[in-house]
Amino acid sequence: MSEALFTPHGPSTDRPSERQPLYRQLADQYRRAIGNGVLRPGDRMPSMRAFMQRHGVSLATATESYRELERAALIDARPRAGYFVRVPSTAALPCAAEPDLAMQPGAAAQFVGIHSAISALVSKFQRNPHALNLGGATASPDLYPTDMLQKAAVRALRRRPTLLTAVGPDQGDPALRAIIARRALEAGSQIGADDIIMTHGGVEAMNLALRAVTQPGDTVAVESPCFFGLLQALESLGLRALEIPTSPSTGLAIEALAFALHTHPDIKAVVVVPNLQNPLGSVMPDAHKARLVDLCARAGIALIEDDPYRELVDGAQPPRSLKAWDTDGTVIHCTSFNKTLAPGMRVGWINGGRWHPRIGMLKFAQSRHNEQLSQVVLAGFLETSAYERHLRRLRESLRLQRERMAAAVAASFPDGTRFTPPRGGMFFWIELPREVSSSAFFEAALDDGIRIMPGTVFSNAGRFDHFIRLSCSSADLDLTDEAVRRLGRLAARMAAHAPTR
Amino acid sequence: MSEALFTPHGPSTDRPSERQPLYRQLADQYRRAIGNGVLRPGDRMPSMRAFMQRHGVSLATATESYRELERAALIDARPRAGYFVRVPSTAALPCAAEPDLAMQPGAAAQFVGIHSAISALVSKFQRNPHALNLGGATASPDLYPTDMLQKAAVRALRRRPTLLTAVGPDQGDPALRAIIARRALEAGSQIGADDIIMTHGGVEAMNLALRAVTQPGDTVAVESPCFFGLLQALESLGLRALEIPTSPSTGLAIEALAFALHTHPDIKAVVVVPNLQNPLGSVMPDAHKARLVDLCARAGIALIEDDPYRELVDGAQPPRSLKAWDTDGTVIHCTSFNKTLAPGMRVGWINGGRWHPRIGMLKFAQSRHNEQLSQVVLAGFLETSAYERHLRRLRESLRLQRERMAAAVAASFPDGTRFTPPRGGMFFWIELPREVSSSAFFEAALDDGIRIMPGTVFSNAGRFDHFIRLSCSSADLDLTDEAVRRLGRLAARMAAHAPTR
């Protein structure tokens, strides 16, 4: 789009802080415009003169605004041409390959054996507990509204003194469930507060869903690669995993799943992360979502939707959940505020579809109701517009962090490295040159003071040994940059010294 | 003991409130002496003259002090003899029968089918949601240190602003675990902070213990009667329950268990509440505890100890946990602060014995770490002597509430009613005349505005249909008295009108 169409004076629900200097307020307006896609990579910024006229500011203020945006790596000066919205240098790296759809159908569903690999990983973490963590799944605390949540907690305790000493309601705080139901409506799901059961994070929700629809020995179809926590849950419940090829751009391969449902009639459930798949970062297109829900409904099996990243997808309007296409209770929707709002609070919830009563009983038998305090704090926070403002800022920060990390990876990793830029969130699923084992890479990186996740723990079938998952979870861009460059040099050394195959 | 030996001027860790009138401070001293057994039922109180001299107070103050103790039903005036520590009128009711040890050995272990009964019960609760609850398992909020916990929470939030937005440690807050380990030492268990995993209440701890040592289809030996939550956990995990006779005074019948271990080699675990068994209120003697641990260790099966009521046992020094006799990791100890300190906080923990690593992995797979906020609040509270003071007060309050309820039951329930006074806590396991079905009694009571727990949900084998569990959980003695009297009249009517058998 042309810069002439961009009018940063337009209505904004963000109230500019009175204490911010003017140049920073203006830079923030442009930062938002870039963050939400109103200004796109390669767009020309207004000339200095146009900027001064448009905003009625001095040359000094205009210059400072542009410097601020340059420092944030959002715009670049091109000699004799002016300023442009920065084009991420990820374009320099080839995208990851689409999965080989032929690889799956013959594979047998396996009992999962991932606990020992995770245990080994965790005990290795202890070798260097102060390593910079590029392997996590939540952003650093400074990206979350720490102060506001703290104040909301103090308010809640003052208003309701017996929060800590009176037993709470079984399904969770009614006010919070009402707010969640209202928000689900915006995400395309018609549910009521009574359809929601609060859980100890999304992980407990996922476990309850699996327990509700399977018996030990049953087979569950999962994405490949998939979140290792799901594999752990399957193992601990005695379930078999059938890994379905999953695209780095469009998510689960529906045709491969359809074929698997024919060849494996013992599949009792499919588990999918439709929005910002972990670790791929893919977002399933609406048409795929519709087909997936229809496929599971016809097959009569549960579709378990793990959806904690939906609100981190780039753009002003997050995509819809699979639940939006559900007409007969096929979809069990699991999510939490753990990634989007408060990693220190274990507040998740589940909408159990037609298994709702059984899930309610399992939750009661497994851990009773959740504590009320966190729920009341969140209800207080979510009543205001603060959550939407926070989400916009978080998406902007993560986008900037992703671009910087993508540029650092492109600049420093060896030839043969590939990845598909994710559409939001913080995960990079990076394919290293085939010569580099991710387990050896993990160990060498840890010894060098950087924690990453090796690809081996994202599959039960021994795939992805030359993949790693990086997280751009820190707002300290320079620290992350430097670490990624060190990782790149390490990968280059390992690729060069690998024995020829 | 003679009243002359009682010296209320002795050192006390309770600081008398400066704002309390003198007569109440003195009454409180005697209340404590009665509560902790220094003065026992039937002991003569000092004469008025002796009281005035000993404490240097006026006749008016002495009289008010005694009136206060009379109002609290702690002392009685006997004409021309003076004042005496009240003898609980429970002596007027026959004790419950010891279990029939012959009933068990032939019984087969059953898959549990309790969910539907609980569901039916819960939906019936909805019929009269405002019924007075004499069926609960936690005391009313005014018996817990609401203000102090609230202040501790505000302090914790101020000191550690990122408590809500930073991910917490895997096993739980280290400071809290260190305090728990120190307290466990006092209870006779030699464990370190690393041996403790924090859980979402004692119920999650129990579930993890069962999952760690069993596979679906396995048999678990349980007390009969036992806590219905345990039966729910067994059902949801696909386990069979073998009910072992349990004495209302000494708990699980060890000989019956020994026999069952011979006849049922498929028993994988025994679950026991050694201190204030739910619903019986029994406390297992030390000698029994030692034998039970030894029996399970020799049989090579897990002994799961559910121990949330230990600190509610009457007396200055709570009894020891089974864990105190454990030398080889046979005992898995599960407990929480839910009954003793903060029913609104879901803070439990587990010491997994030799299954500790597996339990750690299951906990991670099932629900990750607990939220830190509650744990930090509790750590702050437990650092001081406030918890011990609270426990003493809570035990005193519960003792008074039990005596009043026992008196009301004895006075108003029909002939044929039996129960053994519990040694602490709040449960009354009452055997009604055989003509009265507890299910019918439950429904009639609920229609009359009183919620009780029918005995049927405390067994998977259809026992205890003419038993009920009452809880003296409220500090409102008169309200409870009146409700118990109504229940007594109801039982009498139902016994009178039952068809002759």
From TrEMBL, chains A, B:
GO molecular function terms noted in the UniProt entry: DNA binding; DNA-binding transcription factor activity; pyridoxal phosphate binding; transaminase activity
CDD domains in UniProt: AAT_like, WHTH_GntR
Superkingdom in the source lineage: Bacteria
Pfam families (UniProt xref): Aminotran_1_2 (PF00155), GntR (PF00392)
Domain HTH gntR-type: 20-88
Gene3D superfamilies noted in UniProt: Aspartate Aminotransferase, domain 1, Type I PLP-dependent aspartate aminotransferase-like (Major domain), Winged helix-like DNA-binding domain superfamily/Winged helix DNA-binding domain
Keywords, comma-separated and alphabetical: Aminotransferase, DNA-binding, Pyridoxal phosphate, Transcription, Transcription regulation, Transferase
Family of the protein in this entry: In the C-terminal section; belongs to the class-I pyridoxal-phosphate-dependent aminotransferase family.
Protein name: PLP-dependent aminotransferase family protein
